[in-house]
Design brief:
This protein is α/β, with parallel strands linked by helices and 417 residues long. It has three domains: 115 residues, Serine Threonine Protein Phosphatase 5, Tetratricopeptide repeat (Alpha Horseshoe); 130 residues, DNA Cyclobutane Dipyrimidine Photolyase, subunit A, domain 3; 122 residues, HUPs (Rossmann fold). It is 50% helix and 7% strand. The chain is globular. The two termini are 36 Å apart. The mean pLDDT is 93.
């Protein structure tokens, strides 16, 4: 049976509907077919849940729990591993925030290079507008810009061609993705590009091959000799620091009235544990524009706006509180005014991992404190259970996943046997 490609509506209800529709295919069918990219209108073989999971309109714990109601762990392992890959990336970057800062600095410098180097600018524009002459790459560039989504296998091929065939700076490719993907995630996106380039696992690269593309696109594309024959790893300019401890945060909900903040990293405020009767006001903080110094695509901006608006509406429906929406250029005083209007001295937000929302919260923290307001960031149990295991490579992390899930009450105890 062929599934209709889902309408990518940025609401929790739409995400839950997509989850229910995909559940029958999340077992062995997914494991056998997940690598096939048969076109933008033929997405039977993947869940396409990533936009909702990235914004936590649908949470990782409920996705995995739902899958295990229909499939054994053995049958669903491939799908579960794809869900926890994003968790691994987030935990890894959370303990190495300097990697994100380096990336941001490198993007800023590469954007300046575009103004200084006309040849680089031309090659960059040909790549981002789909005019390279490599049919598969050009089709994916168009799909990314118009739909805000790419199949995961296509993302790997695209990144490899960008780096090793077109020889463009990897950070500009990662930035291109982050500007347009509706599931654009600072950790997963940055570290996946680093992995392809040979930076995440030093010396280990990913080379896009014509035969692999032909096979897994069902013959739609076959770039033949157009692609690079080798992928020489990019060298790290400076040694990376080892993993630091995770930042300490509040793990208890306040027992006093609060202003609830909702950002694109966590749009399910009602599951954070704050009693609705204590939510006196709620504010959505839409910071998608901060993903890049270049223009962020409308698909990405629109999905994030909608996700934040949906979280805000559900918070208001449960608590009958006043609501507001702040943009990427909102000054800290805007929060002070909202708190004063609501008569609260406590601001609560879901913990934002490394990325634009975390940067913004760091900016507003001192002004809030100076005005006598407290800011509590609540880390979810899923993150607290899994992030600490992301100190090394993914395969070491994967060994810890079953035990962590059992600790969260997800899955049977025989996983640990």
């Amino acid at each position: 049976m062929t599934m209709t490609p889902p309408a990518l509506t940025p609401t929790r209800a739409a995400g839950l509907d997509r989850l229910q529709a995909f559940l029958p295919r999340a077992g062995r069918t997914y494991a056998e077919r997940r690598n096939f990219d048969l076109g933008a209108d033929r997405r039977d073989d993947v869940s396409m849940l990533s936009p909702w999971i990235r914004h936590r309109l649908v949470r990782e714990d409920e996705v995995v729990s739902s899958v295990l109601t229909l499939h054994s762990h053995g049958a669903a392992e491939k799908f579960i591993q794809e869900v926890v890959w994003r968790t691994y990336w987030k935990g890894w970057l959370e303990m190495r925030p300097s990697v994100w800062r380096r990336y941001r600095q490198a993007v800023a410098e590469a954007v300046r290079d575009l103004d200084r180097d006309a040849g680089l600018r031309l090659r960059f524009e040909e790549a981002t507008s789909g005019r390279t002459g490599i049919d598969c790459f050009d089709a994916w560039a168009h799909e990314l810009c118009t739909r805000g989504y790419l199949h995961n296998h296509a993302r790997m091929w695209f990144a490899s061609i960008w780096i090793f065939t077109l020889r463009l700076p990897w950070v500009l490719g990662a930035d291109f993705f982050l500007r347009h993907l509706i599931d654009g995630d600072p950790a997963a996106n940055t570290l996946s590009w680093r992995w392809v380039a040979g930076l995440h696992t030093p010396g280990k690269t990913y080379l896009a091959r014509s035969d692999n593309i032909a096979r897994y696109t069902g013959g739609r594309f076959d770039p033949g000799p157009q692609l690079a024959a080798e992928a020489v790893a990019i060298a790290e300019p400076h040694p990376l620091p080892g993993p630091a401890d995770l930042p300490a945060v509040g793990d208890r909900c306040p027992d006093e009235p609060v202003l609830m903040l909702i950002g694109e990293d966590d749009c399910d405020p009602l599951s954070l544990g704050v009693p609705p009767n204590l939510i006196r006001a709620a504010a959505a903080v839409v910071l998608t524009e901060r993903r890049s110094p270049l223009r962020v695509g409308e698909s990405a901006r629109g999905f994030s706006r909608g996700a934040c608006a949906d979280g805000l509406a559900r918070a208001a429906a449960a608590s009958a509180c006043a609501t507001s929406t702040l943009g990427h250029d909102a000054p800290p005083v805007a929060l002070l005014d909202l708190a004063a209007s609501a008569g609260v001295v406590h601001v609560v937000a879901g913990y934002a991992p490394v990325g634009p929302t975390a940067e913004w919260l760091t900016e507003v923290g001192p002004p809030l404190a100076a005005a006598g307001l407290r800011l509590t960031r609540l880390r979810r149990r899923w993150d607290a259970a899994l992030w600490p295991h992301a100190r090394k490579g993914y395969f070491a992390f994967r060994k810890k996943v079953p035990g962590a899930l059992v600790g969260l009450g997800i899955g049977p105890g025989e996983w640990l046997d």
